[in-house]
């Protein structure tokens, strides 16, 4: 019985890796340093998502995990949210929000003003319930000490510039 409790105690402290599907990547420089974030999912679920609002408008949320094996790993995550409006080869992005969760939700960087970020969409199409999306982005994100507030410290900023490419299935 004692051995049983030791085994249970051991496994309760072990981080179990979740088998993750890779849907794409975000490749960017963060203040000049090359980085890669992974767009992941597991068992038909993902932090990344898209919704078709009308025929020519989509709401897109990309959660780039700094940890390739864990789709729900928060520290170092890069989040890019935007609305895409257009058709075929002519898409525009608006309502752009970029977050860099440097230390998880303890301290992070945020850009939620239109003049702080830009997204260019090179390809956006939906085939058989999967969104094929690629493009580039630029953001000047500002430090935010409190996760519950949108107030930022504009004296502390990070420049993030890069590309994204995903094949993101519709959420189940």
Q: Mind explaining what this structure looks like?
A:
The chain has one domain (18-169). The chain is 7% helix and 63% strand. The protein has one helix and ten strands; from the N terminus they run αββββββββββ. The protein is mainly β and 172 residues long. Residues 1-17 have low confidence and may be disordered. The protein has one helix spanning 2-13; strands at residues 21-30, 33-41, 49-54, 57-65, 77-87, 90-105, 108-111, 117-127, 130-144, 153-169. Strand 3 and strand 4 form a beta hairpin. Residues 1-19 form the signal peptide. Keywords: Signal.
Looking at this protein, list some descriptive labels.
8-stranded antiparallel beta barrel; 172 residues; 1 helix; mainly beta; 7% helix; disordered N terminus
List the helices and strands and how they pair.
Elements: H1 2-13, E1 21-30, E2 33-41, E3 49-54, E4 57-65, E5 77-87, E6 90-105, E7 108-111, E8 117-127, E9 130-144, E10 153-169
Antiparallel strand pairs: 1-2, 1-10, 2-4, 3-4, 4-5, 5-6, 6-7, 7-9, 8-9, 9-10
Keywords: Signal
Signal peptide: 1-19
Give the assembly state of these chains: single chain
What would you report as the Rg, rounded to the nearest angstrom?
Answer: 18 Å
- Write down how many β-strands occur, each being a DSSP E stretch of 2 or more residues: 10
H-E order: HEEEEEEEEEE
Q: Segments where pLDDT lies below 50 for 5+ residues?
A: 1-17
The largest sheet, given as strand count, sense and whether it forms a barrel, is: 8 strands, antiparallel, barrel
By secondary-structure content and strand pairing, the structural class works out as mainly beta
Global geometry: globular
Keywords: Signal
